[in-house]
Amino acid sequence: MPAFWKQSSFWTSTAKTLVIICLAAMAAAFYQQRNMVSGMAPEINVATIAGERFNLSEQLSKGPVLVYFWGSWCPICNVVSPAVDTIADDYQVVTMALSSGDNAEVNQHLARQGYDFLTINDEHGLYAKQWGVTVTPSIFIINQSGEVNQVTSGITSSWGMRVRLWLAGLSG
Predict the structure, then answer these.
(1) pLDDT block averages, 10 residues each, the chain of length 172
(2) Angle, to 10 degrees, between the axis of helix 158-171 and the axis of helix 77-87?
(3) Domain co-membership, 142 together with 90
(4) What are the residues whose beta carbons fall under 8 Å from the beta carbon of 107, sequence distance 6 or more?
(5) Which domain holds residue 125?
(6) Which residues contact 74 (CB under 8 A, 6 or more apart)?
(7) What's the total number of domains in the chain?
(8) Does 141 lie in the same domain as 59?
(9) Residue 38 belongs to some domain of the structure
């Protein structure tokens, strides 16, 4: 074992660094989420890129809904989107493609990536503005009462989303 591992100054310095990193990450997340809606979720009643009508209020009668804002141009979304696609197999998910082109371009992106989640094209950012989204990816968990139960921006895991959806099912 290296000698520096036995020194308390190494562990103290490492602990301080980890605390600073955690605080900085929490501050960044708080800043990014400062304008995101809370309380009752804004209504979504619009056609998806597949031409099907999506009505958030109707979907909530079946259980909690994950609303995912993403962009085809967003590198972090490329990490989160596969997890969202997997979640969509087991939970209600609607996604909002931001500034990602017209419906044909969004469909091409989804096909290239192999994503099968329900998508609304927010080409001009109207829903993003209504929901207070300033960064992508942004995720909202809506409970059955229509309340925003959780918000997340940035990287998140499949298990984290599953747990939040499960908790929303208990609270709604």
Answers:
(1) 67 74 55 68 94 94 96 95 96 96 96 96 93 93 93 90 90 64
(2) 50
(3) yes
(4) 49
(5) 45-171
(6) 136, 137
(7) 2
(8) yes
(9) no
